[in-house]
Design brief:
This protein is an all-alpha fold. The chain is about 55% helix and about 0% strand.
Length: about 325
């Protein structure tokens, strides 16, 4: 076997991931987690891929756990580590029997019920966003600040409506282009795992798309630079960044008085809300799976943990076998 430095193996794997067409988000995660792992190995004088033993990986996992990382986060590291050694095995840098990850098990994760938005909280969020779009803007001059404010408020309202109405991932929403939107449906082409799907959109969402496009046109007609073809863009005409969208969603939640720290005040929180409402409305779990774009029903089941016990009891009563006997 050829002696391969850990850092070289990681860079080679990342290059291969890019060639395979994996998402930038996945590649960035591998780079981050494997970087932390290799630095740990280097600190204990392990520099080559064939020097890594199962106990080194387990020691690293225990270290992250004792530092306060949740079991699920520790398993995220292991997922990237497994990907690295599988790549090295396929490239014959190590043999199957020498792959140290095959003797390392996942850390058992605590199954937590996910607290998501209630109907009343979502109504408050939507009302807050709607009111913001109707507020008068005092600054009308300096680089069209008024038009910019109108544009960003309409964009933020559209993003929230879209997440609530479709349950799509934030990455999928930010990757949308106008060409993906038809009269009553959205084609999600740049989905996670490249598993595209089509989602129905309501008339409320269609109306907001028109309002947003009008505000966007009014603002960018005053600019002389190219505008991205993406649906969601920033004030400079570039694709709306994920970190900015997450910051704006939290600002909106805080702005309408949602102060419960147990709630995910993130774009992903609306995805849980969407899935929960489909369950409450007795939608078949396989339809929910397809709507969320999950390749495995087990992933969908995680989202069902967001149901609180009152909703579970309500659904149980409505579907009681004895009650519904004919």
């Amino acid at each position: 076997m050829v002696k391969i430095l850990l850092d070289d193996a990681v860079e080679e794997m990342l290059f291969n991931d890019e060639a395979r067409g994996l998402s930038k988000n996945t590649i960035d995660k591998h780079r981050k987690y494997l970087g932390m792992f290799t630095r740990f190995l280097n600190s204990i004088q392990i520099n080559y891929i064939d020097e890594v033993e199962p106990r080194n990986i387990k020691t690293f996992m225990i270290k992250k756990y004792h530092e306060g990382s949740a079991e699920s986060y520790v398993n995220t590291f292991l997922r990237s580590i497994r990907a690295l050694f599988l790549y090295c095995e396929n490239e014959e840098y190590i043999s199957f029997k020498d792959n140290p990850t095959k003797n390392v098990k996942w850390m058992k994760e605590e199954k937590k019920a996910i607290r998501t938005f209630t109907d009343s909280e979502v109504k408050s969020i939507l009302k807050y966003c709607n009111v913001q779009t109707k507020k008068g803007v005092k600054k009308k001059s300096r680089e069209n600040a008024g038009l910019l404010t109108k544009f960003t408020r309409e964009r933020d309202y559209l993003l929230v409506l879209l997440l609530v109405d479709t349950g799509m991932r934030i990455s999928e929403a930010l990757n949308l282009r106008m060409e993906d939107i038809q009269s009553d449906e959205i084609s999600i082409k740049r989905a996670k795992g490249k598993k595209g799907r089509i989602m129905y959109i309501s008339s409320i969402l269609q109306k907001q798309i028109m309002k947003y496009e009008r505000a966007k046109k009014m603002y960018f007609d005053t600019k002389d630079f190219d505008v991205s073809e993406h649906l969601f863009i920033n004030k400079n005409g570039n694709k709306y960044a994920r970190d900015m969208s997450e910051r704006d969603i939290k600002r909106i939640c805080d702005g309408c008085g949602i102060d419960n720290d147990n709630i995910q005040k993130t774009p992903h929180g609306f995805r849980h809300f969407f899935a929960q409402n489909l369950v409450i409305n007795k939608v078949n779990i396989y339809v929910i799976q397809r709507s969320l774009g999950h390749s495995s029903i087990k992933t969908t089941e995680i989202y069902l943990n967001s149901l609180n016990y009152k909703e579970v009891i309500k659904i149980g009563k409505e579907n009681s076998p004895l009650k519904n006997l004919r």
